[in-house]
Design brief:
alpha/beta, 5-stranded mixed beta sheet, about 350 residues
């Protein structure tokens, strides 16, 4: 006795192209890839038994997707809505909850919590959490920002970024700044070392043994740093630092220095010194734009590696540690690679400002 005849499938060119694309696209779910392979084999004339053996599924699975495709074509290969517990919160309630989250604050508080919002809207805090997660809302978080008000912001950004991405020939580009008020801190009790399962621990209180200021010049091309520590942060110290940089740079090259708008950098003694050195050129970053000065990246590195968790019983010990760190980092120096063009920076700022409206 003959069995039930296998329904025949004939794909159109568009359907076959789309199913083949499913099988080749990396982000397609594996379940859809399997169904696409089943239908493609159906189109080639294989029966359910042969298909099941090739793709590694049960015979009735191959038959089910064959029938689904015949009834609904490609749309039938997607997952149908599953049965489950009916929704207990309506779209209107979700809309009201989101609106309240974005446009109001609770009494005696600056932001909503899941439980405050749950009480306000008459739902569970788990429901609030799921809705916030679905819409990417995080009322408990807050970030700071600062937009530069420098009237020459565009010109300065193009100038500095141009030095990073296309430096002048026969010239040295130095990123210069000061890290002031570095404290020599000694913990009130010995630091407890790390052990398996236990992180390093130190007391929250400490003894202050004084401060120092690190003047640093980062060579943008090589990543090497020239540094010197001073007790104070005045024009005299800055001129002395420039003299130290001059001794450690070739005399036959133009020197381009990138620095911020601190008044010390524009003091009369600094201007007089620069007048005697016409091969030196200062390039000021816009106000509130320290992220544009590459030496800040070095300051962040030395802070994380040495200063933040270091224990120093005196300022001289702190100075020695800083200079040793610079010496060691220079031995294996690597430049920070600047990749963002001026136009890309302006586009991001425009996008950010548009989002604030």
């Amino acid at each position: 006795m003959a069995g039930r005849p296998t329904p025949f499938i004939k794909l159109t060119q568009e359907e076959r192209a789309e199913l083949l694309a499913w099988t080749r696209r990396h982000k397609t779910s594996q379940s859809l890839v399997l169904r696409a392979r089943i239908i493609l084999l159906c189109d080639e004339g294989f029966n359910n038994t042969q298909i099941a053996k090739q793709v590694g599924v049960a015979i009735h699975t191959a038959g089910r997707w064959r029938r689904r495709f015949i009834e609904h074509r490609i749309e039938g290969l997607s997952d149908a809505p599953r049965c489950g517990t009916p929704r207990t919160i309506s779209d209107q309630q979700v809309h009201e909850l989101i609106t309240k989250t974005l446009e109001s604050t609770p009494k005696n508080a600056t932001h909503w919590s899941t439980r405050k919002m749950a009480k306000e809207c008459g739902v569970s805090h788990d429901t609030v959490q799921r809705i916030w997660k679905a819409f990417g809302l995080q009322p408990h978080r807050s970030e700071s920002f600062q937009l530069s008000t420098d009237p020459f912001f565009v010109e300065k950004v193009r100038d500095v970024v141009g030095l990073y991405m296309s430096p002048p020939e026969n010239a040295i580009v130095l990123s210069v700044d000061e890290k002031s008020q570095i404290q020599a801190l000694e913990r009130s009790q010995p630091v407890l070392p790390m052990r398996p399962g236990v992180v390093e621990r130190q007391t929250h209180d400490y003894y202050r043994h004084g401060t120092t200021t690190l003047f640093a010049a980062l060579d943008v091309a090589t990543g090497k740093v020239l540094g010197k520590c001073y007790a104070r942060h005045r024009q005299d110290e800055f001129v002395d630092f420039l003299k130290m940089v001059e001794k450690n740079t070739p005399t036959n090259k133009e020197i381009h220095i990138i620095l911020d708008n601190y008044s010390t950098h524009k003091a009369p003694k600094v201007k007089r010194w620069l007048e005697k050195h016409p091969s030196w050129h200062l390039h000021f970053i816009p106000t509130h734009s320290s992220w544009l000065n590459q030496v800040e990246r070095f300051f962040a590195t030395i802070t994380g590696d040495l200063i933040r968790r270091g224990v120093f019983t005196s300022v001289p010990q702190l100075k020695r540690a800083i200079m040793n760190y610079i010496e060691e980092s220079n031995r294996a120096s690597k430049p920070f690679k600047w990749t963002a063009s001026a136009d890309q920076i302006f586009e991001k700022i425009e996008s950010f400002c548009t989002g604030l409206r």
